[in-house]
Specification:
Blueprint (H helix, E strand, L loop, with lengths): L7 E5 L16 E2 L2 E2 H10 L5 E4 L4 H4 L5 E3 L9 H11 L4 E6 L7 H14 L2 E6 L2 E10 L3 H9 L5 H5 L4 E6 L18
Helix pairs in contact: 3-5
Length: about 190
């Protein structure tokens, strides 16, 4: 396997947590720790630049990050805003983007995505059962102007903005547990 380049890890934790009853998803406990701690532990083993995009509770997220960013606009405008803020401060040329509520992510999936992105010199994103999963992606920092332009033109969908440029798909099985989102209280029981 070729040596993987250094990368920044961007954990998106900036949502309003509607399906969690307004709770900050990344801080919801699972197996004795906040969800974000599980994701951070996996990426920390691979990266020395962990960026968390959060719009509240910065003091609680700070122990898990090297850098914190917030959306440029108020009102929880969505993950595209968090990705733009994260890419702007990332210290590495490659950025792994993950959701804070995917605690079963593993190093193998991150490495596969990174290999795919680097080999094709473009973004890479998980595809699951024919659907893109932008919360599991690797982006070159050079996409920042493209995403900023899409935002300025009114685009708010992270997936649509990412698909403006070539994206490599990493096919994953529909039942791949590593991609589980714990985005509602009943899913936390497992």
């Amino acid at each position: 396997m070729p040596r993987l380049p250094s990368f920044s890890a961007l954990i998106l934790a900036g949502g309003r947590g509607q399906r969690m009853g307004g709770r900050d998803k990344g801080l919801v406990p699972w197996r004795g720790e906040p969800l974000v701690a599980h994701v951070q532990r996996v990426v920390r083993a691979l990266s020395d630049d962990v960026v968390i995009s959060c719009n509240r509770n910065q003091d609680l997220y700070r122990p898990f990050a090297d850098q914190l960013v917030s959306d440029a606009e108020v009102g929880f405008p969505g993950p595209l805003a968090g990705v733009i803020a994260g890419l702007a401060v990332a210290r590495q040329e490659w950025v792994v983007v993950l959701a804070c509520d995917a605690p079963l992510i593993d190093q193998g999936l991150i490495e596969e995505l990174l290999q795919l992105a680097v080999a094709n010199d473009s973004a890479a994103m998980v595809r699951q059962a024919g659907y893109w999963q932008p919360m599991f992606s690797v982006l070159p920092r050079r996409l920042l102007p493209v995403l900023e332009q899409a935002w300025a033109a009114g685009e708010r969908s992270l997936q649509k903005a990412l698909l403006l440029e070539p994206v490599q798909g990493l096919e994953c099985a529909e039942d791949d547990r590593r991609l589980s989102n714990f985005n509602s209280p009943d899913l936390l029981q497992g």
